[in-house]
Design brief:
Two copies of one chain form a homodimer. Chain A is α+β, with helices and mostly antiparallel strands and 343 residues long. Chain A contains ten helices and 15 strands. In chain A, 44% of the residues are buried.
Chain lengths: 343, 343
């Protein structure tokens, strides 16, 4: 820590950024009857009985007069998906309420929807606070939801997660937290039910891998497909393709006449496997809430990006997915109900 | 949203919890010369010029007199690893400063170390705020660090992450965000450099899988090992074990006389592979900060826990790791410098 004695406003502002806050939009009915609203993170609770909250506003703000005159204000604690609202009410200029659905509260104040919580207040005190005025209001009405909050820290929006109870300490059963081990284990455990399905058809993992690659786009030669499958450590031979053809799942033509393609039965089977995989995914994320599941996806993508240098060229994004990939067919497949998996 | 007109303090407190905050410890020198400190999340910024902050304290607090009389206070914004400090200063009773290293600030105030940021203030205003007093102080000195913050939301500690810029929108190159695809791809991409190493020895993935299982504990029969390796979709035959024996990496005895074991050369090679894996891991997490990397580990463990029902019994924790696993040898292997991988 380095000590600063003569205080530079910029450095001070930066230091204040170390205190994490939610983000609010404070609204009121303006002196001229217009709707007034602005983004503030200087909100906090004050009193429980009577219920009171506070926030502060720059004395130079063009909105100051409205809050000095008006005797009500509403505080909207924004939800995680309201970053655009936060940005809109932080910008100067144009009508901030344009094209927003606005409700009406006490004193005809504009109320926004979709927030985590809303407080409607009567202004009790206006206090001197240096270059700001501190507004203390008694909460007359409030309404809330369980929405995840928008969070601000260090001048940036953040993502809030419940602090995992398993954050500390290493579970010896998981191989010393080695990422390679965890990734492999998570992947292979998810694959087990799929494998059972594949085995019922008298097929092996390697055939599943071929069908997966085919699902990303048809028309490749067996050799091209084999080079793609190789990333899994399986090296398909001609024989593996012939097994799939014999089971009526694929057709093998020359590359000129179409390469390896699904038969209609093969395509249906691939879609069925995809649906089974999706359903297995729903099981796998049962221990994660919606935000955590999204975050896992994001972190995995970062790992994928960092390790992409290892990839053979055939695996590069632009070479892998083709227009006729079966993901489009997914809509027809049963969708897991992720709603039920939120904890 | 459901509207509440007659305000219940408990419901109001719950609604206030929707506003995320950092956590602070506010300290002062007591009237009797003792050190006073308490946990508060009612902190916020007020003014930039002059630099001012505020926080509020329950009028019923036994600490109130010290802050009403004293003319200085210090606010410590706690870091993510200071949950214990937060709990200690939130509890009543015993000496909260016992066995803490305490520095001295303006007016001989106690200062805590290891915080994200510290503000030393002169009390400027004490304002009426219902059942609380609002303290506004001018910041005379502050010092800060880049420590991640401790965060509070909904009555619980939270974990703050930078909001990923790739949070919205799906990248078509990643197969529609299917977790199975992402896990597999992250895993296999991490494996590629290891595979290259293995191939240099004239071995294949399946041999690597055998050595990995052996690394978790020696003495199993080839059949037991094969059943463990099967999770990867590879089914080792006797021939695969013979190749490893012929290369001088393993010894195959009957289970009674020791089962499959590493030779000294085999053990050294397994340790080398483990080190290579660790180094690949350092590359893989280069796009993640320390907190994100820990979180990825935690989320993967949750997925593993949820999908463990799929596992054959041989894979259960208690059956898998043995006392003689080579992870202990890891200390001797070169460690990747994770410090360099923090963004």
């Amino acid at each position: 820590m380095t000590s600063i004695t003569s205080i530079d406003p910029k450095q001070f502002r930066r230091a204040l950024g170390a205190f994490t806050t939610g983000v609010t939009v404070v609204t009121t009915r303006g002196v001229d009857g217009t709707d007034i609203g602005l983004t503030a993170n200087s909100f906090n609770s004050v009193s429980l009985e009577p219920p009171m909250v506070l926030w502060s506003l720059d004395k130079k703000s063009s909105n100051l007069q409205h809050f000095m005159t008006g005797d009500h204000f509403a505080v909207h604690i924004l939800a995680a998906d309201q970053e655009a609202i936060s940005n809109r009410f932080a910008r100067g200029g144009a009508d901030r309420f344009a094209r927003l659905e606005v409700g009406r509260g006490l004193g005809d104040m504009p109320l926004l929807d979709g927030c985590a919580t809303r407080f409607q207040c009567r202004t009790t005190y206006r206090y001197e606070g240096g270059d700001h005025v501190i507004f203390v209001g008694e909460v007359l009405e409030f309404d809330g939801s369980d929405r995840q909050p928008l969070v601000f820290h260090g001048g940036k929006y953040g993502l809030l997660l419940k602090k995992p109870t398993d954050l500390e300490g290493s579970d010896p059963g998981f191989g010393d937290d080695w990422l390679g081990f965890l990734l492999g284990r998570a992947y292979f455990q998810m694959q087990i039910p799929l494998r059972a399905d594949v085995e019922k058809r008298g097929l092996e993992d390697i055939h599943y891998a071929i069908l997966s690659v085919l699902g990303a786009g048809e028309g490749r030669s067996p050799d091209e497909i084999s080079r793609l499958v190789e990333i899994t450590g399986h090296r398909p031979s001609e024989e593996h393709f012939h097994v799939l053809a014999a089971k009526g799942l694929v057709e093998i033509r020359t590359t000129e006449t179409g390469g390896v393609r699904f038969t209609e039965a093969g395509r249906q089977y691939a879609i069925q496997l995809l649906a089974a995989g999706k359903s297995g995914e729903a099981d796998a994320v049962r221990g994660l809430d919606e935000q955590e599941a999204r975050l896992l996806t994001i972190l995995l993508k970062r790992v994928i990006r960092e390790t992409e240098v290892n990839l053979p060229d055939v695996w590069r994004k632009e070479n892998f997915w083709r227009e006729d990939n079966i993901r489009g067919a997914r809509a027809a497949a049963p969708q897991p109900n992720l709603e039920n998996n939120r904890s």
